[in-house]
Design a protein that fits this description.
This protein is mainly alpha-helical and 135 residues long. The protein contains 9 helices and 2 strands. The radius of gyration is 16 Å and the shape is globular. The model has no long low-confidence stretch (mean pLDDT 90).
Length: 135
């Protein structure tokens, strides 16, 4: 599923004025996965819903997803990208492009995790970060 396909229904909900459902749909079907909304505090849910119109506005910018890959080639320090293997495929495509553009980049994939592995798989995420920093 490509970005526009995945995000389209969320944007439609925002346009109809249903920011709460849009935020829930985004978290459950794009960012984290089923059950994510119920794991969030009321404050986190409210923050996401309050930012829904900002998110929709970003999506209207035709250049929102443009990356200056050449500029990234100048990075000389080690960089770690993490991702979950349950994220929508477009996330891993972006991660791969970024990693290919940076000389000292590594990509680590967390099995069973979605777009925010640091929230859903904190112990595994911490282990990956610790190995990277310690190495």
């Amino acid at each position: 599923m490509e970005v526009r396909e995945a995000i389209g229904p969320v944007l439609e909900l925002i346009e109809r004025g249903d920011a709460d459902t849009a935020a829930r749909d985004f978290m459950e079907n794009i960012a984290v996965g089923p059950g994510a909304w119920e794991m969030m505090s009321q404050e986190e849910r409210g923050s996401l819903a309050a930012l829904a119109h900002t998110f929709a506005g970003e999506q209207l910018d035709p250049a929102w997803a443009e990356l200056d890959l050449d500029a990234l080639g100048g990075i000389s320090f080690p960089v770690l990208f993490t991702q979950g293997d349950q994220s929508p495929p477009f996330f891993s495509k972006v991660t791969a492009q970024l990693a290919e553009s940076i000389r000292n980049a590594e990509v680590r994939t967390l099995p069973g995790a979605g777009h925010v592995p640091h929230l859903t798989h904190p112990a595994e995420y911490l282990a990956i970060i610790s190995r990277f920093v310690g190495g």
